[in-house]
Amino acid sequence: MILDIQNHIIVIRGAGDIGSGIGYRLFRCGFKVIFLEIRNPSNVRRKVSFSEAVYDGETKVEGIKARCVSNVKEAFKILDEGIIPVIIDPIGETIIDIKPYVLIDSIINKKNIGTYVNMADLVIGVGPGFIAGEDVDIVIESNRGQNLGKIITNGQAEPNTGIPGNVKGYTIERVLRANKDGQIEVLKDIGSLVKKGEILAYIGGEIVKAEIDGVIRGMIKNGYYVKKGMKIGDIDPRGDRSYCYKISDKAMAIGGGVLEGILYYFNEKVENDIV
Fold it and tell me: For domain 5-160+248-274, which CATH number applies: 3.40.190, 3.40.50, 3.30.930, 3.90.320?
């Protein structure tokens, strides 16, 4: 192994479902992973997001434990215990102290909000908003299709389509969005089987209904203050509850792309150094 994975830290910005899929795959391969997250994450796929540690102190995703810590010293301590640290750090202030070998931006914000090539030996951006060879070293394609998970060493990912992936013929019908600003009262949480027309939540007195039959695979945290048009959940028309607690195929594919990107980059670097 060219890269000494036991002595190099990987920092992932964003511990939502995509970032968690990346972290899961890297952790399983033996890498030491630290997540940076905002103070009030709005992830809907909470059962497969390490960001839940921000609210609950600790969480598990497919058997891997993460714990919210307050500083870098605590993060290094629990890394040695086989636990993934999550630090509340929305602007990446701790990156300079962590000194990561690899920095991955998986915030999926459709634009770069503060991740640049000088922050680590290798900097990876997931999805649109990054340009490989300019603000990051590598971009990972996040759009579903033939190129999902592909590493891009020059240029950028495909633009965001705004259309969710097709599941049993459903796309936009699967996604739940806030119909107004306000605090959400969740009636049907993750894992609930629902029918079309069923009331799932209230936002400021307005009802949110299911547009299709299925299982609630994602739902924003009860009591969260949402904005009109914001994604607040999703329904899986396959109706299999077990999928609610499994990392998605998309997140796993992107995680595989990140792993490939890391190995590709450092293999190329060593070969060039030898030459």
Answer: 3.40.50
